[in-house]
């Protein structure tokens, strides 16, 4: 394909101006049609019937080095390698019709083995948070097929996938507070084995620990707080299969509160200047989320506080392999209004800090 044409396509796919969506939609649709046509022609020429874009099961031959035996490795490969990263990002476009076309293109590309599936896993993990049920279902199908064939590729993709989900939901009005089953859906993908569930929950815990240090990250404090809010709000809806999993999460949250939480508690109590209070207010909002979820988890499953403090995953405890019994039917509902509070109002800041101090004091003395 002419370099000038490729440059035009690249420029248009990068265009974020109003009205550019229609052009990008036409480009992606034509790329999709072209790749699908080449697939059909390739199969017709060489008589291969087992490699088809209509097959719902992913056959990720590219990862194993066998893709060239099945697909035309000419112009399709060049086009895909040049544009796949950008089109993966377009899967999160607020225009659901356009986003769906991008999702279908990416699914086709990885189904036919043109690219290493590792490139798409985090994107499809993020797409499980889509407002569109059609897109969620497409993403879910791809993730199930990939997980069944390449489970080991998921471990390093969870964190980025969670980040994509929060970025996407943050861009939607009330998007953070209206999502409740994102983690439950992902949990259903990985729930077949104990080791897979452990790795999934470990990835969640690491992400929570990472974003709990709001003043030490490259991202904004607001994003870190929103990440914690979103993940805990969705984590509350998971029906865990073992008691061990609930203790894994409880131990991580206890560790966060015992370190970052107590440090912040001492800092807030020592503050006098209003300007300094505003700086720690967002951190206090995040810690309030942890405090409320900690109370919820302990109450719902009747967890032993001493056992949480001494929990070690490497210890073999047959009792913790049993199914957790719900002691109290509780609904976890973090106050979304706190996340939207006007932090320019000093009275609002004082109220949030007061709530954090009292909640942290209760946690520290129980």
TrEMBL record:
One of its GO terms (molecular function) is chromatin binding. It is found in: Nucleus. It comes from Candida tenuis (strain ATCC 10573 / BCRC 21748 / CBS 615 / JCM 9827 / NBRC 10315 / NRRL Y-1498 / VKM Y-70) (Yeast). GO terms for cellular component: Scc2-Scc4 cohesin loading complex. Keywords: Cell cycle, Nucleus, Repeat. One of its GO terms (biological process) is chromatin looping. It comes from the Eukaryota. Belongs to the SCC2/Nipped-B family. Residues 76-256 form the Sister chromatid cohesion C-terminal domain. This is Sister chromatid cohesion protein.
